[in-house]
Amino acid sequence: MGTNVSKDDVERVSKKLNLSSSTTKDLLKSFVELGCGTTITREEFHQFVSRMGEISKERREAWNTVFNMLDLDGNQVIDFYEFSVAMIYHSKLTNDEKIENIFRMVDFDKDDKISYEELHKAVDAAARIKLAKRASLTNMKTVFADLAEGRKDKLNHQEFRNALLSARGKELLNLMGLL
Ligand SMILES: [Ca+2]
Ligand SMILES: [Ca+2]
Question: Quick check: keyword Oxidoreductase in the entry (predicted)?
Answer without folding.
Answer: no
